[in-house]
Design goal:
0% strand; elongated; mainly alpha
């Protein structure tokens, strides 16, 4: 099922972002492409409602069905705003201490998102097995 692989790919993206945040917290190093990836998450959390090609591209995988569904299930409007604020601070701050603090505060959000995405992946896998075993 395409949806199952979409969830798995998204889970891997979320894990990669989490690992990058852990590196920031542990030793202050930040991957070169992290800001662009974080910006896609911010665009998805803000959910402007636009469906243009440009707005979907800005959201990356997080703007696809699996990402939108997981974000909507895990985060209410208040949590979205808090998470987006922490991520914006991570991108915009020049202070290493503030960056560490923001990265540390963002990890639980990514963890919750990853768990939800993997839940849907496993559920799709189980459904596929049931259909093919008949």
């Amino acid at each position: 099922m395409q949806t199952s692989s979409e969830y798995l790919t998204l889970a891997l993206d979320v894990r990669r972002l989490t690992d990058s945040l852990v590196r920031i917290v542990e030793d202050g190093t930040q991957p070169v492409d992290l800001n662009a990836s974080i910006q896609k998450v911010v665009f998805s959390l803000q959910g402007t409602g636009k469906t243009s090609i440009k707005s979907l591209r800005e959201r990356g995988r997080f703007g696809r069905y699996a990402g939108v569904r997981a974000i909507n299930e895990v985060f209410g409007q208040k949590e979205r705003q808090e998470f987006a604020g922490k991520l914006r601070m991570l991108i915009e701050t020049r202070s290493a201490d503030e960056r560490r603090e923001s990265a540390l505060a963002s990890i639980p959000y990514f963890d919750a998102l990853e768990r939800r995405v993997l839940y849907h992946h496993r559920r799709q896998q189980t459904a596929r097995r049931l259909v093919t075993s008949r």
